[in-house]
Design a protein that fits this description.
8-stranded parallel β-barrel, 680 residues, single chain, TIM Barrel, alpha/beta, Rossmann fold, 7-stranded mixed sheet, 3 domains, Immunoglobulin-like
Length: 680
């Protein structure tokens, strides 16, 4: 390319420099980008949308794609571009901007993706026509109506300078109202829940943003084109899907890793500095072992390699790893000591429903994020999820557990699966059979326990998220699956529990099986129960306990029981449920279960009191002799006051009564107890 000005010109020199830079990037060729988010790009839909006779000349596919892409890179999210008919199963989030033309096959592909646990965001005027430009039958959006859980009654293109605002509070990033342009629609939910309404314009009072739970996933719909607040809306989808983003980077920086190279693109008019990049700059050969400064409007590409210091540290760590491997042959009980607990966990069984209904979680500094990532960053390393057989609200099922388990394992956390063997709560006061098992003869009931346990755990193994621990039954003081499995007939109790144990071991021999009782301070109960378990041949690996100080006795009684059962039965112990209130206030209009200002003497219902009690429970577990105290789980750490996420799965109007014992406060922020537990 030779400009009219000839070779003695800045244009010529820029082209020469570009050619030299491209040669230096030869090492990137063949490298792959790892992305958790994909943007749908379909040339045929692009062309069809921009034909002259569409409802608005401002409907432009490219502009919507660009807007979403910019919002995502400003969130420091790497993006792939995909066709709607492609295999999208590997992405946590797929965004389909204004997909006007959508074939039936592509629509089914998107439907399968969401049902299997994916998170899909669709924007306005989508799913209208097929590949022949023929309108899909029925109400709009014909191809996506069931997937999105809504219908569109009317389109309302906005005039050139006309804007509308959305309800639901300001943009979290700027504090300004969320303003949109170009388009609005009259949305009628048919299963979807409203996230934000139009505050003004032709569709004032009607949904502008919706969310629809389908199978194990969620489909979102955006019925307008935000000018402000698009990043805020996208952040909600990303948080819901568990897409983590780096913190502390300026939003003018685009960062992408590909094939051992990191691309740093500064879109701003000021230099930016990026920490934690080690390697050699491709363009100038400069070695970077820490911060990299990218000039305004410039691009820096670093071929990543460890610094000399990192290399030394790796050698030290390798030596330590070899030493630990050698020590691993020593029995666990010979390694007793005051170190951190093996399990610093949280039960988050209500999280998926909370997120689907708009639950928001923030770290201690107020930054919104994925609840699981916030727990992990605070030092927690294990998650407990309950399984119901066929609950009325469709949550805590196999598919729901699979979806959350993928997020848990992606964070490197351990997984405890808690089988209730019921359609609803199982505890010392009730052990109801699932409706589908109600009339089964005992032998078929035993087989149902085996099959259900195997089915869930095998599906977890198949997706690469094998359960580390499994509870066969929940708080089974009086047995399970009453009346057949009541411990008034220990032989039946043993047969049902051993069916669950055998199923767990058939899937993975390394999965540890827990037997769980409540009343953690009642030594008489535990001796009676586990003596009978031994006499009747009940198989298990770990003893699990619930201990709530306001119900289950003094910490001293709890400590004595814990030490005794660990020694008497030679099994490790784990507290699978504990909690304590941080306030007496209510947040969802449903009276809290624990309302006392000091439900255990000396521990007020304050963030400090909650931290102190949970720390005491953790320290008691850690002090169990011979290293047999594995750790603890706080119960329902994410069960905040979200409307519709109540106790009764059959009653959306019920509240939860537990939000004052979660690890997130009423301002959605992580409470001090979270990091206290993470350090234990």
């Amino acid at each position: 390319m030779v400009p009219h000005a000839g070779t003695d010109s800045e244009q010529w020199r820029e082209v020469v420099r570009l050619g030299a830079d491209l040669r230096r990037l030869a090492g990137v060729r063949g490298g792959r980008v790892r992305a958790e988010v994909a943007l749908v790009w379909d040339w045929e839909s692009y062309w069809a949308l921009e034909l002259d006779w569409r409802p608005s000349v401002d409907l432009t596919f490219r502009e919507r794609v660009d807007a979403f892409y910019e919002a995502l890179w400003r969130e420091h999210v790497t993006v792939d571009f995909v066709h709607p008919s492609a295999d999208i199963s590997g992405y946590r989030v797929v965004v389909a901007p204004s997909s006007y033309l959508l074939t039936e096959a592509s629509a089914k592909n998107l439907h399968r993706y969401v049902e299997s646990g994916g998170n899909l965001l669709v924007s306005y005027f989508s799913g209208i026509v097929d590949e022949h430009d023929t309108i899909h039958p029925g109400a709009h959006p014909g191809a996506l109506r069931e997937l999105l859980g809504l219908s569109i009654e009317e389109f309302h293109p906005l005039r050139e300078h006309e804007t509308v605002t959305l309800t639901g509070g300001p943009d979290a990033l700027t504090g300004a109202p969320i303003v949109a342009r170009v388009w609005s629609e009259r949305v009628r939910p048919a299963g979807a829940v409203t996230v934000r309404d139009f505050a003004e314009g032709p569709d004032a009072g009607h949904p502008a943003v919706t969310r629809h739970a389908l199978g194990a996933g969620t489909a979102w719909y955006l019925a307008t084109a935000p000018v402000t607040g698009l990043r805020d809306l996208l952040a909600q989808v990303l948080d819901h899907a568990g897409v983590s983003r780096p913190h502390g980077l300026p939003d003018t920086l685009e960062l992408v890793r590909r094939g051992g190279h990191v691309f740093l693109i500064n879109h701003g008019d000021q230099p930016v500095t990026v920490e934690g990049v080690s390697g050699v700059s491709v363009f100038d050969g400069v070695r970077h072992d820490g911060p990299v400064t990218v000039p305004a409007g410039a691009v820096t590409v670093v071929a990543e390699s460890p610094s000399p210091r990192e290399t030394r540290m790796k050698r030290i760590l390798l030596t330590a790893l070899l030493l630990l491997t050698a020590l691993a042959v020593v029995p666990a009980h010979a390694q007793a000591g005051p170190g951190r607990l093996q399990i610093r966990g949280a039960d988050v069984s209500s999280l998926a429903k909370s997120e689907a209904l708009g639950g928001v979680y923030r770290d201690a500094r107020g930054r919104r994020g994925d609840a699981l990532a916030i727990l992990s960053q605070a030092g927690l390393n294990y998650i407990r999820l309950k399984v119901w057989v066929n609950p009325a609200d469709g949550y805590n099922t196999k598919s729901r557990v699979l979806a959350v388990a993928r997020r848990v394992k992606a964070l490197g956390m351990g997984l405890l699966v808690d089988f209730h063997y019921s359609d609803t709560w199982a505890d010392p006061g009730k052990q109801y059979k699932p409706a589908a098992w109600e009339a089964l003869p005992f032998e078929q009931l035993r087989q149902a326990v085996y099959d259900h346990t195997y089915d869930v755990l095998d599906a977890l193994r198949d997706q690469g998220t094998t359960a580390d621990m499994v509870q066969v039954g929940n708080e089974i003081n009086g047995g399970l699956l009453w009346p057949d499995g009541s411990n008034s007939t220990w032989a039946n109790t043993a047969a049902l529990l051993n069916a669950g144990y055998d199923a767990a071991k058939a899937v993975s021999g390394s999965t540890r099986v827990v037997l769980h009782l409540a009343n953690g301070g009642d030594n008489g109960l535990y001796r009676w129960w586990f003596d009978n378990a031994g006499a009747h041949g009940i198989r298990y690996d770990v003893i699990g306990l619930s201990y709530y100080s306001y119900w289950h006795g003094t910490p001293e009684a709890f400590q004595a029981n814990l030490n005794d059962v660990a020694s008497r039965y030679g099994k490790p112990v784990v507290v699978v449920e504990t909690a304590y209130p941080f306030t007496t206030a209510d947040d969802d209009g449903w009276e809290n279960i624990i309302t006392s200002a000091e439900s255990y003497p000396g521990y007020p219902a304050t963030p400090q009191g909650q931290s102190a009690m949970l720390a005491r429970v953790a320290d008691i577990v850690r002090a169990v002799p011979n290293g047999l105290g594995l750790g603890l789980f706080t119960w329902e750490a994410t069960w905040t006051g979200v409307r519709g996420n109540g106790w009764d799965p059959a009653d959306p109007s019920s509240g939860n009564g537990w939000e004052n014992q979660a690890l997130f406060g009423y301002d959605d922020r992580a409470l001090p107890a979270m990091s206290v537990l993470g350090r234990r």
